[in-house]
Every structure is written in C-alpha cells, then in structure tokens.
Design a protein that fits this description.
Elements lengths: L1 H7 L3 E4 L11 H11 L2 E4 L3 H17 L3 E2 L10 H6 L6 E7 L2 H11 L4 H10 L8 H4 L2 H14 L10 E2 L7 H9 L4 E10 L6 E10 L14 E7 L5 E5 L5 H15 L3
Parallel strand pairs: 1-2, 2-3, 5-7
Antiparallel strand pairs: 4-6, 4-8, 6-7, 8-9
Helix pairs in contact: 2-3, 3-8, 5-6, 5-9
C-alpha cells in the first residue's frame, strides 16, 4: 500500500474494503498508510471507526489531513457532519433502525415467507451479501452503534460491551402476530449515557424490539433507516432515510471528497 501511494502520488485514498468485525483490518492499515503518506483518507468501512478512531483522527490532525467516514452509517446521510454544525451540543443518547437488510427480512416474513425466502429478497435488492451473518446476527448494527458512540459521544466502546441479539429466533408467525397487534418487531439500536464523573459511561443494545406501528420506528419499512438523537439542546432530533438507492453510499464518499478538497 505504501509503495502504491508513493508511486501514484496520491492526494486522497478512498477505502472501501469489507467490514472486519474483529479488528477492522486491512482498512485500518490502509488508512494509516494514506495519512502517513500525506493523503486525505475517506472510508465507507465502519471497522476503523470502532477499532482505531482516536489514533487515526489524531494522525490526520498531525498530518494536516482529513479522515472522513460519512458513508459508514446511513449511507451518505450527513450524520457525523450534522454534529460538526452544532458545536457544544451534548449528545445524551440515541435509538434507531440502522440495518436495512434485517428490516427487509422482517417485513417479508410478516407477509408469511420463510427466513430463507426473505433473505433472498434482500439479496436480490443488492443490500444483503451471500453470507448475511453480519446483518442477521446484529453485528452490522452493533458496529454502527459503536461508531456513533465513539465519534459523537466521545466514548470508546468495545463491541463486546454492546448487548447484541440478532433476528434468527423470530418466526413468521410471531412477526405476523406482532404486526396484527400493532406492535411490529424491529432490530433496534440504542445507546444512553449513564453515571457521572469517573463512573460515567454509555449503555448500548442491539436487539429485536416490539415498537408501536404508528411511531416513527414502526413506520420504517423496506430499505429505509431512522435515527433519533437526544441532546441537551434538542430533546428530540430525528433523521429518516427513505429507501435509498445503491448510489447513496457513493454519494457519501463523494461528499467527503468535496469536504477534503475544499478544506485547504
């Protein structure tokens, strides 16, 4: 990587390797190499945010370069840069639906199809990989939750500290009954500040929950996403992304490129 960066005389590195839940590699090394080289680093990979955010942030600052990652959560929606525009705002917590694959699967199973059939629908839509373990078992949602906590709440969190449950144990019958009763299941991400002083921290969960059908989360269907922030200034600040196309993640990286290019 370092030899390639030097040969190319790269000014910007776009990093888009697959998520490695365990340690964020090789993306962490790619971004570190780019910043050491003197290039801006832009990634759509959540792993480096969870496993090496502070190191890479500080390295970027020391090199006078940008380390940007808007596409890691909710595609290209400006979640991280939103808070850049709200200096001194203190984030107390958040909840939302951040994994579109499970949202599609749950919706299809509510219509009576099996889990495997619902997964095939998500794969046909292009939002689920052949091995959808990260989505189905809640890893993708947990990593996104950890990324938001790490960056926006400034609290380093390990994935093992997030209580995580996937959707494998939900049956079509249970999902149909829940929808009929007006309380459909969703894979919900939650984080909340707890304690004070030396005991301060964040409690976080990713797990299936029944939500009121008429609530904002209850209305999230298909590939849509939703997040609700609780801050000291704005008690409720919500963002909804409705059924984005596959271009949305690319747009997030393009927007980061424009930010980097105009930062000098």
């Amino acid at each position: 990587m370092r030899e390639w960066l030097a040969a190319a005389r790269a000014d910007v590195l776009f990093e888009a390797t697959s998520l490695n839940v365990k340690d964020g590699q090789p993306a962490v090394d790619h971004i570190r190499a780019a910043l050491d080289h003197g290039a801006h680093a832009i990634t759509a990979n959540k792993g480096p945010i969870v496993h090496a955010y502070r190191e890479l942030r500080d390295l970027a600052a020391a090199r006078g370069k940008k380390f940007l990652f808007e596409s890691t959560v909710m595609d290209g929606v400006p979640i991280f840069s939103l808070f850049d525009q709200m200096p001194t705002v203190h984030l107390r917590g958040f909840h939302g639906i951040l994994n579109s694959t499970t949202n599609v699967i749950l919706g299809e199973m509510e219509n009576g199809v099996t889990f495997d059939e619902a997964l095939k629908v998500a794969q046909t839509l292009g939002i689920a990989e052949t091995d959808a373990t990260h989505d189905v078992d809640g890893w993708d949602a947990a990593v996104k939750t950890a990324a938001l906590i790490t960056v926006l709440m400034d609290v380093p969190v390990r994935l093992e500290d997030i209580h995580r449950e996937g959707i494998r144990d939900l049956t079509p019958q249970a999902l149909r009954n829940a929808r009929r009763d007006g309380w459909p299941f969703k894979l919900v991400c939650r984080a909340q500040r707890v304690g004070q002083g030396e005991n301060a921290g964040v409690e976080a969960t990713v797990m299936p929950e029944k939500v009121l059908a008429t609530s904002p989360m209850g209305k999230i269907t298909g590939t849509s996403s939703y997040i609700h922030f609780e801050t000291d200034i704005f008690p409720g600040l919500a963002v909804t992304e409705e059924n984005p196309g596959l271009y949305a993640t690319v747009y997030g990286m393009l927007a980061d490129f424009v930010r980097a290019a105009t930062s000098a």
